[in-house]
Design goal:
alpha+beta, 30 strands, 21 helices, about 30% helix, 8-stranded mixed β-sheet, about 775 residues, disordered N terminus, single chain
């Protein structure tokens, strides 16, 4: 187990810091990216893969694809798709016989006849679904479905009146973004749950009150809500009443004893919203928009007792079984998740609190329903307002740019099997010949469901080579196919988006040639998702690190160029050189390490990593760093402590924060007031350059990142120091105290640097026994 000692990365790929083509760039580079064609909706870890399982195992990194079904524009077709008996949809990879008007499915190889309305089709006059210039098509069917319902669930246990005012402003901002045809409902909660009457039938506000100590089931909701149309109304009809109620919301009046937390029944309120949606919008895409200001202390889903002498749970408490409320709360939200997914309803959480609110317990419900998660410390933050506006983006037709009540089917040709998916979804248990025997993530099925999907939703789909039955031997053994079929609701339409991709089969296993097809960014993100999934399933922290280390060493040993037992001879090709660097930063990140992070912080980080696309995910794993000086143009620099100099400004992008860090000299000039002095206008102009680039990076990101500007020695500088490689530490500066001096020793510390890892990785990768 000597690989367990590795803790760093190779120096010969430090050049990757200077040209990260797949990461976000400052303003000028980002404008060029915006003009470039959109990234493909499917990104493979390997462009070619062996045809047998033994050689596939020797490839180290599994075959997987990052699928972002709504990330690109699709060709809309206003007729029903033509499907095969296996469920696959007609696509350009199918073989068409124009004489007999028949087509052979590329998935199951079955022969099908074209219907009568395809009679006029010729080789030069093809329908859009058979044209290769339309790789993504979407079948649109107008339907009469119940309108989308948004239930606003508002926490009224706010600490101060100013925070209550800011919270009301956030809720009103949300209401203003909703489409007029949407239906709305309002639930507020503190010690009790109140379902507000929006009919305006009386001159005074009226609400239905539920006990906060018990779960509100669908049967209870149906028994007490005899006239749902009084509580769920079209926004166009109820906007005045709803706005008035929100503007007059008061802080919960239930008395709070000294040294106690307020009674907050979050679980009961969310179960009320789910039961109301099940009553008024069954099997219809809808959502719960929850605004949380603190942890649940009452009823189902409680995460901490009311007395403040009891601290809210930590990772150590959860690990050592010292959090008695944790398992019951997770069980409650797991049941709520299954109810909501079955009905096509999503849970969205917007929280503003300095402490934890219970997101760790909710994470399964948020993940499975595809819900969005926006967190901040105060309701007045600008990033919160920007995130709310971006959440309600519209399409060109004016509908909300979101897919509701969605399912994704994966169909594969006989030589390819799907092992599972990791992302914001849940398996439905549907079986097909495409399902593999082994499972990765959510496996054992070829269909996954989610209640909400948008252009940022990305699913990691894993595959393995399959052995076709004798009656399904492909004629073209050089290719295999995968088809992703996403069905979802949008407005008053049902849509079926079809993406069919061809993947190359390696007839002979030549690792040098196969290595040329390696996508290190996609592979790093796929491996990160597997690592996070293993951690979420209860794997010990050290076991996850060992698993990552094993894959890095095996990959470098397999595809590196070296002489046995000569570490200094090791070289990696450019398309592999960044991968160990990504893994070095992954194993130091908050996605794997939980030390000094609360369970809620860990849940937020992991949920967003499991949702975002490849480019954003790699920024989460390996942040970008740019240097600005008054004598040189802006340039990317290594994510290293050596990049912090007194005379430069650094722009760090971690996805969650965009931070400008001023060196000691620049900080002193700012404190001296040179920025405002007319004689130093050039200095003011210099400071504006990273600020403009920071705004450009944050312009279209969701959730909106924090924009931070700090100087050397300031508190916010910890964000930079936590992510950079610590080149200078006491571990490598004292003779006789070198890291890993004892053979086979397991030492894990954040102080280990790239140079330390270089020696260990090179040594372990070139060993003769590999």
């Amino acid at each position: 187990n000597s690989f367990c000692t590795l803790l760093g990365c190779l120096p010969w790929f430090c050049r990757a810091h200077h040209a990260m083509a797949d990461q976000q760039q400052p303003q000028e580079q980002q404008q060029q990216q915006q003009q470039a064609p959109a990234a493909p909706p499917v990104r493979w870890s390997w462009g070619a893969f062996p045809m047998n399982r033994i050689d596939a195992t020797r490839m180290v990194i599994p075959l997987g694809a990052l699928v972002s079904p709504l990330s690109v524009e699709a060709t809309e077709l206003n007729y029903a798709p033509l499907t095969c008996a296996c469920g696959a949809v007609l696509n350009p990879e199918c073989v068409v016989d124009h004489r007999s008007k028949a087509w052979q499915c590329c998935i199951c190889l079955a022969r099908n006849a074209f219907p009568a309305h395809y009679a006029s089709m010729t080789e030069h006059h093809l329908p859009a679904e058979l044209m290769r210039c339309y790789p993504v098509v979407e079948y649109v069917k107008p339907v009469q479905v119940a309108p989308t319902v948004f239930v606003l669930v508002v926490d009224t246990c706010v600490d101060t009146e100013s925070e209550a005012e800011n919270m009301r402003d956030a809720v009103l901002r949300t209401i203003n973004q909703l489409p007029e045809e949407a239906h709305v409902a309002l639930i507020t909660f503190g010690a009790t749950v109140q379902l507000h009457d929006l009919s305006g039938a009386t001159d005074f506000p009226r609400s239905l009150v539920f006990r906060g100590s018990t779960e509100v089931t669908p049967e209870m909701m149906a028994r007490f809500v005899r006239h749902p149309d009084r509580y769920v109304k079209p926004l166009a009809d109820a906007e005045f009443a709803l706005t008035t109620l929100v503007e007059e919301l008061a802080v919960d009046c239930w008395p709070v004893a000294k040294d106690h937390r307020p009674l907050r029944c979050t679980g009961a309120a969310l179960s009320s919203a789910a039961s109301l949606l099940q009553l008024v919008a069954p099997k219809t895409g809808s959502g719960v928009l929850s605004f949380l200001s603190g942890a649940c202390t009452e009823g189902p889903g409680a995460v901490v007792p009311c007395p403040r002498e009891h601290m809210i749970r930590t990772h150590t408490d959860i690990r050592d079984k010292r959090a008695p409320l944790y398992e019951p709360a997770c069980t409650f939200y797991d049941g709520l998740m299954r109810r909501m997914v079955a009905q096509g309803h999503a849970l969205h959480v917007i929280s503003a609190c300095l402490d934890q609110v219970g997101l760790s317990e909710m994470r399964g419900c948020i993940l499975a329903t595809g819900g969005v998660l926006v967190t901040t410390d105060l309701w007045k933050r600008g990033q919160l307002k920007a995130s709310i506006e971006r959440f309600f983006e519209r399409t060109s037709s004016g509908a909300l740019a979101m897919g509701l009540n969605a399912t994704m089917d994966v169909h594969t040709s006989p030589t390819l099997k799907v092992t599972g998916v990791i992302g914001q979804c849940i398996g439905t248990g549907k079986r097909s010949p495409s399902v593999a025997e082994t499972e990765v993530g959510l496996g054992g099925t070829s269909q996954w469901a989610t209640s909400y999907v948008d252009s940022r939703s990305t699913y990691a789909v894993f595959f393995e080579p399959g052995v076709p039955p004798p009656n399904q031997q492909p004629t073209d053994k050089s290719s295999r196919f995968a088809q992703f079929v996403l069905r979802y609701q949008q407005g008053q339409t049902e849509r079926i988006r079809v993406i069919t991709v061809r993947h190359q089969v390696a007839q002979t296993t030549n690792f040098a040639e196969l290595g040329q097809t390696f996508d290190q960014v996609a592979a790093a993100v796929l491996l990160a998702r597997i690592a996070v999934h293993r951690a979420e399933q209860g794997a010990q922290h050290f076991d996850v690190l060992r698993w990552i280390d094993k894959h890095v060493i095996r990959l470098v040993s397999r595809f590196g160029d070296y002489a046995k037992d000569q570490p200094e001879s090791l070289k990696l090709a450019p398309h592999f050189s960044n991968f160990p660097l990504f893994m070095f930063h992954l194993r130091r990140s908050a996605y794997i390490h939980v030390f000094n992070n609360s369970p809620d912080e860990t849940a937020v980080n992991r949920i967003l990593l499991l949702k975002t696309n490849a480019n954003d995910s790699i920024v989460m794993i390996h942040p970008t760093l740019f240097s600005y000086t008054m004598t040189e143009p802006v340039r990317p620099v290594p994510l290293d402590s050596s990049s912090c100099t007194p005379d430069n400004a650094l722009l760090l992008d971690t996805f969650f924060e965009v931070l400008i860090h001023h060196g000691a000299t620049i900080k002193a000039w700012r404190q001296a007031g040179y920025e405002e002095h007319p004689d130093y206008a050039h200095f003011k102009a210099f400071l504006e350059v990273p600020r403009a680039d920071a705004r450009a990076l944050a312009a279209n990101r969701f959730p909106a990142p924090r924009l931070i500007e700090c100087g050397q020695g300031d508190g916010d500088g910890r964000i930079l120091y936590n992510r950079i490689n610590p080149t200078r530490t006491h571990n490598n500066s004292q003779p006789g105290n070198e890291y890993g001096g004892n053979s086979g020793e397991l030492v894990y510390t954040d102080d280990a640097n790239l140079q330390t890892f270089t020696a260990h990785l090179k040594k372990l990768a070139v060993q003769s026994n590999n």
